[in-house]
Each structure stands twice: as structure tokens, then as C-alpha cells.
């Protein structure tokens, strides 16, 4: 039942794009501007290019066992118990991130749209549709992503179109003042949220993608599209708001929408534009949640993951309310622990797999046939 | 099964209520806000619309707006305290204009602006003005003609005068904050004055007169150093400032004719380019202003059909303009010592390395910056007539 | 109290909807995992609803990654 | 989650087959040789039904042959019964010795082969089949001494002729609509598609109503899998009565509780013909003018036959207009509630003040206000349908003007709300399909409630849930939202816009795997003036 779902390469591409954009459009411009000032958009470009290497690593791993998810692959390569242990960490990470994203959406709505609504009810509402999506299965998520990406890009297009008169090039000049060292240093958080965390996509790539050869290509293209969207957002934030405001705002891209004013007629549309962030957040959270639910089911060798969805959704909603006491804690945690957690799961673990695979290559090649 | 669960959960969420719901008739829509410092306390004024008076149907003939005020240790506290007076919660989402008191501006506006940039409902696109020789309460108390809501009047006339005259400068909150935080540019804010009798101005009588007893006028530009007001620019200097910072949309300028008398040039387009350099370790700034305009009126005798006349007029204009701009820059360099033109930013853009060296003592450096002003006017047309009929008037 | 009743009602609804198919299919393992997770979920929500402190998993992670972080940052 | 699964149907079917009732005579029972016996059995079975006419006659030389002519009064064509059956038997062959004519054959065959001058006639030995035929309007002839009967098809009853369809009207297009008669309906389709591959399978469903059902498809276009699935689902039906195609729809559709219909119904033969050519399958049910079409996709409910008959540009604009109207009728009140009670910052200042002025003194929250108006409107609308037509018009005037204006005057409702509710209601009528309009009517209230508690976020959540739901639906195996999701570029020519007919080279992608090409390539198909004109000009 888990393996039956098949999504097309195009649908996979869209999921990758939405995943890449995900939280990034909300928080990345601010984080980058804090360190690299008005060169934040250069950092985004550099980060995206480096991120491609990470994506390449994922594609490499995915090739070996195209019929296995990441969890099963871990067990296959690292052996049953070590594999399960590592997988547990992986599942733990994606589950933490799922609830962390719930927190993001709650905070975002609390700061900009519904300040007096308790975050619990916002998170629960969001969790309900996430649970609903995962319940309906990967195919349904992928199909609805196809529709929402249209909505997303229409909104995005209008946002860019409407905000472009406000662009002040003085705000990004002088170009490349930050210097190579700062640029490279500030890419790490960017790579973390856009590409390293994309390891959770290995839970359905390439297992559930109908054309495996094409899928790797989609992975790259989807990532690049998502990366470009973030670069545009970063550039616009810096050039419209200025480096200081971009760094100071919690959600600079929303502030961007507030600045839209075309002839005093098209203005005050930021609440409408909030749809953009909700869509991006929704799909990223759903993918994290799907990965963790499916992961738990596979670690425990369950036949079906569906019974776990509702209880796990409940736990995720509760966790989202307690994991970060406030936004400052969250920003601090992301910079210190989160980045290491992501890198150890998203970069070191794959590298470990590569190393072990290289050693056990012959032994493993026989294994799939016998099992 | 999902649907059932979904329904139950949604229902339970509904039952707990709608936290952020505010009906339109529970709002006190604040269009103008005033902040003043009174004896170590902030006094906040809110000019609130009375919707039923604005609409055609339910109007009873009383004033269209009402003013609430409160005092508090911080702006936010005062703002909330206003509910003691106002029956509805003050809704700041449509704030159009913020009037800062002169006293407050002299002491520093930074702290009072923080709330306005932090509050989620306030959009940072309202104009900020500073009172000159009056207080925010007097300004906000004045009733106005034509635009019956004073805040709208203030907003529109600032916008229009900037567009048509360039003798004022509209500064929105986000621009102001950007200027305040920039280390290469200082802030300016347009001043607002009350002309006439403020007592009658606050009553309905004021709008019943053809020429109101009191009216709100924009004049002068306040110059800031850091977040403190240090002085005022005259109207002429304000226009010069607008030219340098490239914020002139259209304007009008009197020039003297070669053989006495006056002519007016209507400026249709202006573009200025400020370039910074470090020459021999000294900062230097080139200002190139390209202006296009028409001859608006001719009040002297000259032959407009002559190509030379046009060129001559252009030259006169350029000379006079350069002189004014130089004078203005001089005032700021010598008198106020504050870089409102953003020369520092220009140098930063041109030479970030050198800038880092001088930025900490930019205040002193600014006074010694060599500024080269270059104005280039192109007269495109002479209006609907060529020569003035004044030529033909028989004595 | 209202919160506790609400949580219990939701838990009951989940049980009512999820358990019969599991029993029918005789998926014992699924049932066990499901019950454990649901218990945790209900327990956590109750604790949250009653304002009891809930251990933050992130603090644990911070504890684990702190040495690594220190090595890199210094 | 489980209601989407089809597996349970099989289990269900096992249960239902156990309850097959034994009230009617056992189908195994044949006819008796004795005429008296047969007639007695008939009388016993049918009770004292007065519409069953049993006419006992004697014919043949010297009237030696005893026979019974049985028919249902009202369902049988009495003139033809008298002219071609009774007259033949009692007058025309009076002097002929039938036994002699074909001694080896039995009399029944002789009557059938040589004597009776009627079209459709068949021999039958099963008592059950004879009963069914009799009740369907056929005439039965039973002969003494034979355990066989003749069924003569001369059904004829009062019926509606082919008239203009009322539920789905168009400005340009054929004026004929289906009737209640299955035969006429199949004829209407056959008249449009004269293709030997147009196959019509018939089934009888309903243990008591014995309703005839025809499955119509074009054999080399329709997907075999879907045809098989339709047959399977129809065969699983075990119910006493089918009165309308809606009953069939309820029994074979994919998801019962979804507000969206996964089966399309129409009363227009041209729509059915077009659908058949696209590879869809039509299910005709006797006794109703509404024909079911499967698989039905979401966008199908936005397509009107007119789109293809009118000029292309116009058709496309109208199609887009329909989508806009759909969104308005779904979201307008919700958006209004969200904007006025949550996101006042979105309103331009002048509008905000004017709306606030309108709301001064309105006692209800905007949500309740909208709810009152919407419910009032739904009541008016429902009342308008049930009322005689002449009063219906008066009703709508009362509804629109009197209640609306009075409510505003009384200060119960703000004027803007009346405008919003009216535009919503009018947009709802734009939908060419009643099914979609109903779905929207239900969902509108959900969105209003979501908007009232969470503003735009609520609406957004609702939309995500709605689209997830739509994407999870399937109609006979075809994803409901195709060709939007899964996206298919070649099918976009008939989705949001309508391309010229010469551009529609392929049939819809998912429904047709085997026979996709509709016409020659568009380069050749594009209409253009003859090229030789140029030559004439130059010479």
C-alpha cells in the first residue's frame, strides 16, 4: 500500500520546488541580511550553487536502490540495528521540523494576521489539513501541489510585478562589499533550509516516482526553480526594504508585500499575499510529516502508516506549541543546534552511506535479489 | 473518516470563539495621529473619524472627526490609555499622517517611532510631519474645508504640493526610519504650521467661512541630526534639497530676464545624479541635475522666436539654480553640519573601503566635502503661444 | 476542565474511527503502535491543556550538539 | 478513509444476494400445457388487477383451437392488437387448417412464422419472462395444449414527445431533449452517431421495477477498463426499484458524501454524443430524460455545449467567466466577512469609512448578517422552484426588493451585505450544471464559518482542504481534477479556454489510451481560403 502510490516526474519537480521555497521565503532573507547585509542576494546565489552539490549527493544515493525508501536503504547499507538507529534519528529530525514549521506558521499568523488568536488553535487547524493531506496519500498531495503551484506562481508573479517599482538599486550597492569569507559563512543556514533538509524527499524519491531516470533531473530543476524564487525574494527584500530593515524584520518578505502601492490603487493586498506563505509552508510541513509518519511505520515494519497519522498529528501540534518558547529562542536554536542537526543527518549521514556502500558494494549488489 | 473528524474539530474551534474578530462598527478609525512630549511624558493624539457623519445619509451636522488624547510614560502606553476616553478601540491601520511635536523632535523622535514600526496593524506608508511654532493638538484640532476630514486634507495637500511645487517633501515612516539608521544620510521632515486663529479653527465655524479663520499649511523643512531636530530650511532651500535628492516631480521657477523683468520656467522633469569620489584622500561629490521644462510665463520683453533667447534663458536658470544649491549645501555644511543629501551614501557606494575609514567621523568630514554642482536645463516648449502678447501691448 | 473533556472527546472520536478497521484486519502491531502514540498524544495535550510543563526535545538536542557546535564555532 | 475504497462492495454484495426474495414465481417454473391452468396461475399471481385483460378466444377451423390473449390495458397499443392480432386470428385464418399447413411444426411456430402480422414476436416458455413482458406492455398469446407462449411486442402508451430540454438550456444548439422513453433516447443518440461501433448494452435493474438500462459507448474509443468497471458496478446493484437515473448514480458513484458529483447528467443528446466521442460512457435509464455520463471530471461541470457552437473567442471568455463566477459564488460572502471583520487594513480608507457608516447600528456581527441573508435567499430560491411559475416571478421580486430593502431600511442588515449576497446568488446561476451549483451552495456556508473565525487564514485552510478533497476524488478510476492535476498540456485546449475546433486533435488524455486522434493534423485542418485565388490575381 505504501509503495503503490506513483507520482509523475513533473509532480515530483513541483514538490521539490515547494519544499525548497517552503520556510525559506519567510525567514531566509532576514537571516542572510543579518550577516551579509546588502549582499544577501549574492549569498543566496552562492548557497544555491553549493546546494546543487548536496542535491547531487542525494541523487547519487537514490540511484543505488531505486525501490527502497531512505529508511529501508539505511537498513540495507548499515545493517539492521545501526540502520534502524540512524533512521530513528532521521525520523526524529523530520518530526521535529514538522512541528517546528507548524510553529512558524503559527508565529507568522500571530504576528501579521491574527495577533489575538491563540497559537494553539492556529496550529491545530493547520495540523488538521496536514493530517488530512497525509491521510489522502502522496498522490493526492502531489496533485493538489500541481494546483497550488499555479496559485503560488500567479501570486508570486503579481508580487514581483507590483513591488518592482519600489526597487532602489542604491540599497544593494556597493555590490560584494561583504567579502568572500562572510559570503561563504552565511551560506550555511541557507543551504541547510533549502537543500540539506531536502533529504526527507528521499522518503518518496525515487521509490514513488514513475520515471526514475527523469526524476533526478526533476530534483535539480525543482531545486533550481525554488532557489531562484528565494533569490528573487532576497533581492527584492534587500533592495526595497534596505539591508537593515530586512535583517530587523522577522518576516521581511511579508513586509515587502506591505510596500506594494501601484498608483494608490493596488495596495493593501498583503493579507491576500499571505496565501503565498501559507501554501509554501503547508507543503513543506506536509512533506516533513509524511516522511516522519512513513519513517516510523517502516522502522517498525508496519503494513500501513495510516493509523499512525492522527495520533502523530496530535503530538506534532502539541510539540509545535512547546518546542520554541518564543521567536528569539527559535532563531537562536536554528543558528546553533538546528544547523548541526540538519548537517549531520543531511550531509554526514549520506556521506557515511557512500563510504559504507563503497566498502560493501559487492555484498549489497546481491542482496536485493535474494531478499 | 477524515471528514467526520474534521467536522468535529472545526466545530470545537468555532465554539471557543473568534479572537481577532472586530466588527467595523467597533472600530475607531484613526486617520491622523499626533505625538508630543509634555513634561517627560508622551502625549498622544488620535484624530478619529465619525463614520455616520461622513456618510451622506446619517449625518447630523456635527463634526466629522473627533480628537482623543492621553498621556503616558511610553507612546504605547498612552496609545492604549486612550480607550479611557474613546468608546472604541483605536484602529491605526489606516493612519495617514503622523504629526510630531517640535519639542519632541528636538529631544529625539527615535523612541516614539519604535511602536509605529513594531505594531502589526500600522502600515509604514503614512507621512510624518513636524509642527513648527505650534503643537500637534492645535494642528489636529483644526477643521478643514473641501476635504472634510482634516487628516485627508493634510495628506492630500502634502502629496499635491510635493508633486506640483516641490517646496515640501513627503516622508513616509519607512523612509524616515531608513534615513535615521543610515550612517551616510540624515533625516528631514516637512514642517507644518497653523495660520490664523486656533480657537475658531477647532470649531465648526471655521469651515462655514469662505476664508477659514485657521488653516493648516506646510512650510519649511526640518533638518535632523541623528533623531534630533537641529534646524529648519527655508522654502527655497527645500526646493534645492528636492533637486539634489531627485525628488522633484514638477515645479515652477522664476528667473530674471536678460533685460529685466521676470519669466517663469515650469519644470516637467528632473533627474539628479549624485556621485561620490575620494580624490587624494578627500571626499568629493559631483551633482549632476538634468532638468527639462517649458516656459510657463513671460513677464518681460524678449523674442522667444530667437534660438539664442532660449539658450540664454537656460543659462540664466542654470546659474541661478547652481547658486541656490550651493548656498543650501553651504548652510548645511557650515550651520547645521548634517548630511541630509546622502553624500555619505554616495561615497559608500563608490568606494566602500575608503568609506569604512571615514564613516566614524563623517560629521566633520561632511563640512569639508567639495561639492561640484552642475545643472543642465532643456527648454522643450514655450507653451501654447510663442511670443508674449506683452510685446504687443501699446503704451 | 473543558479542555480535558474536549481532548478526551477527540481521542474517543479517533479511537472510534481508527480502531475497528485495525481490529478487522487483525493488525496487532499497528494497533499497539497506534495505542502508544495516541496515549502519548492525549497525555501531552492534557499536560498542555492543564498548563503542566512539557519537556522540550530541543533542549535534549541542544545538549547533544552543544560540544560539536563549540568545536566548530571556536 | 474507507469510504473511498471499493473493496467493500464485494462483501456487501454477498450479503445482499442472500436477501433475493421469493415472492414472484420461480423463474425455473415453465408454463403449463393447459390454458386454463396458465390463466389461473396468471390471475393468482396478478391478483385482481383490473388493468390486466384476459381475452379467451377460439380460432382455427371450426374454432377448435383455444387460446388466450392477455395484455395490460394502457400499456398496449389497442388498435394494433385488434387489427393485427385479434383480426388475424379470428377472421383471416378462420378457414385455414393450420395443422395441415405445417404438420411437423407445432402450432405456436406456425402462428409466429406465418400468421401473425406483427414486427417483434418471440416464443417463451418461462412463466416469469412472460409476466415481465406482460407488465411491460407486451401482448401474450397462450395456446391450449402448449407449454409455450408468444410474446408480441406492441407496447404503446401515452408519452411525452421530444421537446426542448428545460434544465440545460442553450442559445445556440439543438432544441431536442431526451424523453422518458429509453427507445426514443437511444434513437436520439443513434441518429447523431451512425457508427457501427456505437454499442448499446442493455440490462434490467430493480427486482420489482425491472427498469431497463442501456450502457452506450463507442467500442473502439471508450476505454475497456472503464466499460468493464461500469458493468461491474451496475451488476452489483441489487435493489427493488430504480425510479430515476439519480438512483443509479447513487449506487455506482465513487464517493457518496462528497459534495461534488462524480457522475455527470444531462438531458441533451448532443452533449451525450460529444461525450461518447470523447470516450465517455453513457448510462440511459428508462423512465427519465436524464442520462448519466461517466467518467465525469471537475471541469466538465463548467463546460456547456454552447462553448463549442459559438465563436471560439466568445466561448473561451464565457468559460473563464464561469470559473470567475464559481469563485465568486463560493467565496464572495466569506471574503467579505474576512475583510470587514479581520483585515480592515485591506479596504481603501474611503470605502472603510463608508462601510463603517453603513454598519452603524446593525445589531449582528457580519457573519450572522451574512448567514441570515444567505439562508433567506436559499429559502426564497427553494420556494421559487416549488411555486407555480407565475407566482415564482412574484416571489423573486418580493425576495429581492421587499425583503432586501426592508431589511436595510430597518437597520438589520447593512446595504453592502445585500449587494454581496445578491452577486453571490446571481453568480451561482451562471453554472451550467446544477450539481456544481448545489455543491457550491453547501460549501459557501463552510467557508463563511471559516472566514468568520480565522479570516483569510480560515479561507486558505478551507481552500487547501477543498482542493485536497477534490484531488483525492476519482471518477471511475480517472482523477477528478484531471487535466489540471495531473496536469496535461494537450488537454488544456478545453479546460480554462476553448480552442478552435480544428485544434482539438486529440481526445482527452486519461480517458483514451487506444484511440486518441480525433481529426487530421491542425495544419491541414485550419480553415483558410483556397490558395489558387492568388494565381487568379497574378495572371
How would you describe what is shown here?
The complex is a heterotetramer of chains A (371), B (395), C (74) and D (539). With 371 residues, chain A is an all-alpha fold. Helices cover 77% and strands 1% of the residues of chain A. The radius of gyration of chain A is 20 Å and the shape is globular. The two termini of chain A are 19 Å apart. In chain B, helix 5 packs across helix 8 (173-181) and helix 11 crosses helix 12. In chain B, the strands form two sheets. In chain B, strands 1, 2, 3, 4, 5, 6, 7, 8 and 9 form a nine-stranded mixed beta sheet that branches. In chain B, a hairpin with a 5-residue loop joins strand 10 (251-256) and strand 11 (262-279). Chain B is α/β, with parallel strands linked by helices and 395 residues long. Chain B contains 15 helices and 13 strands. Chain C has 74 residues and is mostly helical. Chain C has one domain (2-73). Chain C is flat. The mean pLDDT of chain C is 82. Chain D has 539 residues and is of the alpha+beta class. In chain D, the strands form three sheets. Chain D has a five-stranded antiparallel beta sheet with strand order 1-2-4-5-3, with helices on both faces. The longest helix of chain D has 39 residues, at 434-472. Chain D is elongated, with a radius of gyration of 31 Å. The chains are: A mainly alpha (371), B alpha/beta (395), C mainly alpha (74), D alpha+beta (539). Chains in contact: A-B, A-C, A-D, B-C, B-D. Chain A binds chain D through residues 8, 10-11, 109, 113-114, 117, 122, 125-126, 128-129, 132-133, 135-137, 140-141, 143-148, 268-269, 271-272, 274-275, 278-279, 282, 306, and chain D through 1, 342-343, 345-348, 454-458, 460-461, 464-465, 467-472, 479, 481, 484-487.
Notable characteristics:
heterotetramer, C: 74 residues, mainly alpha, D: 539 residues, alpha+beta, 5-stranded antiparallel beta sheet, 11% strand
% residues in beta strands of chain D: 5-15%
Q: State the strand order across the main sheet of chain D.
A: 1-2-4-5-3
Specify the structural class of chain A.
mainly alpha
Give the overall form of chain D. Answer: elongated
What is this entry, summarized?
Chain C is mostly helical and 74 residues long. Chain C has three helices and no strands. Helices cover 85% and strands 0% of the residues of chain C.
Topology (SSEs and partners):
The complex is a heterotetramer of chains A (371), B (395), C (74) and D (539).
Chain A: H1 9-21, H2 24-36, H3 40-64, H4 70-78, H5 80-112, H6 119-136, H7 138-163, H8 180-194, H9 212-241, H10 243-248, H11 252-258, E1 261-262, E2 266-267, H12 270-299, H13 306-322, H14 327-370
Antiparallel strand pairs in A: 1-2
Chain B: H1 2-16, E1 27-38, E2 41-49, H2 51-54, E3 65-72, H3 75-81, E4 89-91, E5 97-100, H4 102-107, H5 110-118, E6 127-131, H6 136-141, H7 150-164, H8 173-181, E7 188-196, H9 198-201, H10 205-208, E8 214-225, E9 228-233, H11 235-244, E10 251-256, E11 262-279, E12 282-299, H12 307-336, H13 343-350, H14 352-358, H15 362-367, E13 370-381
Parallel strand pairs in B: 1-4, 1-5, 5-6, 6-7, 12-13
Antiparallel strand pairs in B: 1-2, 2-3, 7-8, 8-9, 10-11, 11-12
Helix pairs in contact in B: 5-8, 11-12, 13-14
Chain C: H1 2-25, H2 28-49, H3 57-73
Helix pairs in contact in C: 1-2
Amino acid at each position: 500500500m505504501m509503495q503503490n502510490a506513483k507520482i509523475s516526474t513533473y509532480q515530483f519537480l513541483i514538490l521539490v520546488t515547494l519544499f525548497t521555497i517552503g520556510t525559506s521565503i519567510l525567514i531566509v532573507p532576514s537571516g542572510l541580511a543579518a550577516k551579509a547585509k546588502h549582499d544577501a542576494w549574492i549569498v543566496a546565489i552562492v548557497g544555491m550553487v553549493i546546494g546543487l552539490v548536496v542535491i547531487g549527493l542525494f541523487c547519487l544515493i537514490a540511484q543505488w536502490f531505486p525501490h527502497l525508501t531512505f529508511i529501508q536503504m539505511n537498513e540495507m547499507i548499515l545493517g539492521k540495528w545501526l540502520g534502524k538507529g540512524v533512521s530513528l534519528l532521521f525520523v526524529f529530525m523530520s518530526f521535529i521540523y514538522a512541528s517546528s514549521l507548524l510553529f512558524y506558521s503559527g508565529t507568522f499568523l500571530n504576528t501579521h494576521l491574527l495577533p489575538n488568536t491563540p497559537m494553539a488553535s492556529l496550529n491545530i487547524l493547520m495540523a488538521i489539513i496536514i493530517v488530512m493531506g497525509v491521510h489522502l496519500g502522496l498522490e493526492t498531495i502531489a496533485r493538489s501541489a500541481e494546483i497550488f503551484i499555479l496559485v503560488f506562481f500567479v501570486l508570486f508573479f503579481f508580487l514581483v510585478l507590483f513591488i518592482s517599482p519600489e526597487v532602489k538599486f542604491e540599497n544593494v550597492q556597493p555590490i560584494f562589499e561583504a567579502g568572500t569569507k562572510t559570503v561563504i559563512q552565511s551560506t550555511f543556514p541557507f543551504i541547510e533550509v533549502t537543500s540539506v533538509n531536502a533529504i526527507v524527499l528521499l522518503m518518496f524519491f525515487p521509490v514513488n516516482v514513475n520515471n526514475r531516470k527523469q526524476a533526478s533531473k526533476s530534483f535539480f530543476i525543482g531545486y533550481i526553480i525554488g532557489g531562484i524564487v528565494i533569490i528573487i525574494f532576497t533581492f527584492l527584500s534587500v533592495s526595497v526594504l534596505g539591508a537593515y530593515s530586512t535583517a530587523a524584520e522577522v518576516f521581511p518578505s511579508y513586509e515587502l508585500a506591505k510596500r506594494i502601492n501601484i498608483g494608490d490603487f493596488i495596495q493593501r493586498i498583503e493579507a491576500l499575499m499571505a496565501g503565498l506563505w501559507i501554501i509554501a509552508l503547508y507543503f513543506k510541513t506536509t512533506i516533513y510529516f509524511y516522511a516522519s509518519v512513513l519513517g516510523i511505520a517502516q522502522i517498525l515494519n508496519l503494513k500501513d502508516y495510516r493509523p499512525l497519522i492522527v495520533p502523530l498529528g496530535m503530538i506534532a501540534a502539541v510539540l509545535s506549541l512547546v518546542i520554541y518558547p518564543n521567536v528569539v529562542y527559535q532563531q537562536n536554536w536554528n543558528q546553533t543546534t538546528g544547523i548541526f542537526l540538519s548537517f549531520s543527518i543531511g550531509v554526514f549521514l549520506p556521506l557515511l552511506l557512500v563510504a559504507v556502500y563503497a566498502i560493501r558494494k559487492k555484498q549489497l549488489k546481491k542482496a536485493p535479489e535474494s531478499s | 473518516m477524515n471528514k467526520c473528524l474534521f467536522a468535529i474539530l472545526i466545530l470545537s474551534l468555532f465554539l471557543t470563539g473568534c479572537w481577532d474578530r472586530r466588527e467595523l462598527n467597533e472600530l475607531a478609525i484613526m486617520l491622523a495621529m499626533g505625538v508630543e512630549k509634555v513634561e517627560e511624558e508622551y502625549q498622544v493624539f488620535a484624530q478619529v473619524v465619525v463614520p455616520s457623519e461622513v456618510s451622506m445619509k446619517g449625518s447630523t451636522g456635527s463634526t466629522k472627526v473627533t480628537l482623543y488624547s492621553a498621556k503616558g510614560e511610553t507612546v504605547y502606553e498612552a496609545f492604549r490609555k486612550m480607550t479611557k476616553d474613546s468608546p472604541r478601540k483605536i484602529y491605526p491601520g489606516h493612519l495617514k499622517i503622523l504629526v510630531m511635536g517640535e519639542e519632541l523632535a528636538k529631544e529625539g523622535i527615535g523612541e516614539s517611532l519604535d511602536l509605529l514600526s513594531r505594531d502589526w496593524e500600522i502600515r509604514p506608508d503614512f507621512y510624518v510631519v513636524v509642527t513648527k511654532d505650534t503643537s500637534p493638538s492645535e494642528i489636529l484640532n483644526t477643521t478643514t474645508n473641501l476635504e472634510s476630514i482634516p487628516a485627508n486634507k493634510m495628506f492630500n495637500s502634502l502629496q499635491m504640493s510635493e508633486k506640483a511645487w516641490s517646496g515640501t517633501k513627503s516622508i513616509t515612516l519607512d523612509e524616515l526610519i531608513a534615513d535615521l539608521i543610515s550612517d551616510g544620510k540624515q533625516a528631514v521632515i516637512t514642517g507644518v504650521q497653523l495660520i490664523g486663529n486656533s480657537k475658531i479653527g477647532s470649531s465648526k465655524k471655521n469651515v462655514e467661512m469662505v476664508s477659514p479663520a485657521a488653516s493648516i499649511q506646510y512650510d519649511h523643512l526640518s533638518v535632523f541630526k541623528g533623531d534630533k531636530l537641529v534646524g529648519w530650511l527655508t522654502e527655497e532651500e527645500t526646493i534645492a534639497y528636492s533637486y539634489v535628492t531627485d525628488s522633484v516631480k514638477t515645479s515652477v521657477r522664476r528667473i530674471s530676464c536678460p533685460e529685466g523683468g521676470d519669466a517663469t520656467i515650469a519644470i516637467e522633469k528632473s533627474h539628479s545624479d549624485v556621485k561620490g569620489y575620494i580624490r587624494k584622500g578627500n571626499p568629493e561629490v559631483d551633482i549632476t541635475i538634468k532638468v527639462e521644462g517649458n516656459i510657463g510665463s513671460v513677464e518681460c520683453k524678449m523674442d522667444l522666436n530667437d534660438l539664442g533667447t532660449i539658450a540664454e534663458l537656460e543659462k540664466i536658470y542654470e546659474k541661478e539654480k547652481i547658486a541656490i544649491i550651493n548656498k543650501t549645501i553651504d548652510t548645511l555644511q557650515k550651520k547645521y553640519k548634517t548630511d541630509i543629501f546622502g553624500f555619505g551614501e554616495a561615497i559608500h557606494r563608490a568606494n566602500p573601503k575608503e568609506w569604512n575609514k571615514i564613516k566614524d567621523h563623517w560629521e566633520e568630514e561632511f563640512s569639508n566635502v567639495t561639492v561640484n554642482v552642475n545643472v543642465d536645463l532643456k527648454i522643450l516648449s514655450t507653451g501654447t503661444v510663442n511670443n508674449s502678447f506683452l510685446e504687443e501691448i501699446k503704451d | 476542565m473543558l479542555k480535558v473533556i474536549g481532548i478526551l472527546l477527540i481521542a474517543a472520536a479517533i479511537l472510534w474511527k481508527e480502531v475497528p478497521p485495525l481490529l478487522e484486519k487483525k493488525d496487532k502491531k499497528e494497533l499497539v503502535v497506534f495505542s502508544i502514540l495516541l496515549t502519548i498524544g492525549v497525555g501531552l495535550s492534557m499536560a498542555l491543556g492543564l498548563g503542566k510543563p512539557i519537556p522540550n526535545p530541543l533542549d535534549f538536542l541542544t545538549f547533544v550538539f552543544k560540544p560539536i557546535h563549540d568545536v566548530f564555532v571556536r | 478513509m474507507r469510504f473511498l475504497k471499493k473493496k467493500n462492495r464485494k462483501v456487501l454484495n454477498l450479503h445482499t444476494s442472500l436477501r433475493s426474495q421469493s415472492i414472484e414465481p420461480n423463474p425455473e417454473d415453465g408454463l403449463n400445457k393447459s390454458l386454463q391452468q396458465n390463466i389461473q396461475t396468471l390471475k393468482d399471481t396478478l391478483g385482481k388487477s383490473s388493468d390486466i385483460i384476459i381475452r379467451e378466444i377460439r380460432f382455427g377451423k371450426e374454432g377448435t383451437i383455444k387460446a388466450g390473449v392477455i395484455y395490460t390495458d394502457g400499456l398496449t397499443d389497442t388498435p394494433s392488437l385488434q387489427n393485427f392480432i385479434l383480426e388475424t386470428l379470428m377472421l383471416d385464418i378462420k378457414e385455414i387448417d393450420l395443422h395441415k399447413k405445417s404438420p411437423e411444426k407445432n402450432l405456436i411456430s406456425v402462428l409466429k412464422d406465418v400468421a401473425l402480422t406483427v414486427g417483434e414476436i418471440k416464443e417463451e416458455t418461462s412463466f416469469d419472462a412472460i409476466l415481465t413482458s406482460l407488465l411491460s406492455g407486451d401482448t401474450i398469446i397462450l395456446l391450449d395444449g402448449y407449454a409455450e407462449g408468444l410474446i408480441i411486442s406492441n407496447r404503446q402508451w401515452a408519452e411525452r414527445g421530444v421537446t426542448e430540454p428545460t434544465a440545460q438550456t442553450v442559445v445556440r444548439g439543438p432544441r431536442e431533449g431526451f424523453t422518458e422513453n429509453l427507445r426514443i433516447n437511444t434513437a436520439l443518440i443513434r441518429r447523431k452517431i451512425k457508427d457501427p461501433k456505437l454499442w448499446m448494452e442493455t440490462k434490467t435493474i430493480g427486482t420489482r421495477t425491472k427498469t431497463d438500462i442501456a450502457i452506450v459507448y463507442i467500442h473502439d474509443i471508450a476505454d475497456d477498463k472503464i466499460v468493464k468497471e461500469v458493468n461491474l458496478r451496475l451488476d452489483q446493484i441489487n435493489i427493488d426499484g430504480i425510479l430515476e437515473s439519480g438512483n443509479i448514480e447513487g449506487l455506482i458513484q465513487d464517493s457518496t458524501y462528497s459534495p461534488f458529483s462524480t457522475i455527470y447528467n444531462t438531458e441533451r443528446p448532443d452533449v451525450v454524443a460529444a461525450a461518447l466521442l470523447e470516450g465517455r460512457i453513457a448510462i440511459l435509464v428508462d423512465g427519465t430524460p436524464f442520462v448519466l455520463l461517466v467518467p465525469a471530471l471537475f471541469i466538465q461541470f463548467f463546460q456547456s455545449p454552447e462553448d463549442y457552437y459559438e465563436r471560439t473567442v466568445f466561448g473561451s471568455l464565457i468559460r473563464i467567466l464561469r470559473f470567475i463566477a464559481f469563485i465568486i459564488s463560493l467565496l464572495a460572502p466569506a471574503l467579505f466577512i474576512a475583510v470587514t471583520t479581520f483585515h480592515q487594513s485591506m479596504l481603501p480608507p474611503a470605502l472603510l469609512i463608508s462601510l463603517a457608516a453603513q454598519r452603524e447600528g446593525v445589531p449582528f456581527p457580519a457573519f450572522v448578517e451574512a448567514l441570515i441573508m444567505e439562508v433567506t435567499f436559499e429559502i426564497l430560491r427553494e420556494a421559487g422552484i416549488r411555486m407555480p411559475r407565475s407566482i415564482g416571478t412574484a416571489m423573486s421580486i418580493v425576495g429581492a426588493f421587499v425583503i432586501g430593502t426592508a431589511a436595510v431600511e430597518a437597520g438589520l442588515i447593512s446595504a453592502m451585505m445585500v449587494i454581496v449576497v445578491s452577486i453571490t446568488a446571481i453568480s451561482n446561476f451562471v453554472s451550467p450544471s446544477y450539481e456544481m451549483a448545489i455543491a457550491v451552495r453547501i460549501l459557501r456556508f463552510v467557508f463563511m464559518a471559516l472566514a468568520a473565525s480565522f479570516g483569510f487564514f480560515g479561507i486558505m485552510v478551507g481552500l487547501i482542504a477543498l482542493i485536497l478533497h477534490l484531488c483525492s476524488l476519482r471518477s471511475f478510476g480517472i482523477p477528478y481534477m484531471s487535466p489540471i492535476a495531473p496536469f496535461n498540456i494537450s488537454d488544456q485546449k478545453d479546460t480554462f479556454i476553448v480552442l478552435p475546433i480544428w485544434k482539438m486533435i486529440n481526445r482527452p488524455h486519461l480517458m483514451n489510451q487506444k484511440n486518441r486522434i480525433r481529426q487530421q493534423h491542425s495544419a491541414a485542418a485550419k480553415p483558410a481560403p483556397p490558395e489558387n485565388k492568388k494565381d487568379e490575381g497574378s495572371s
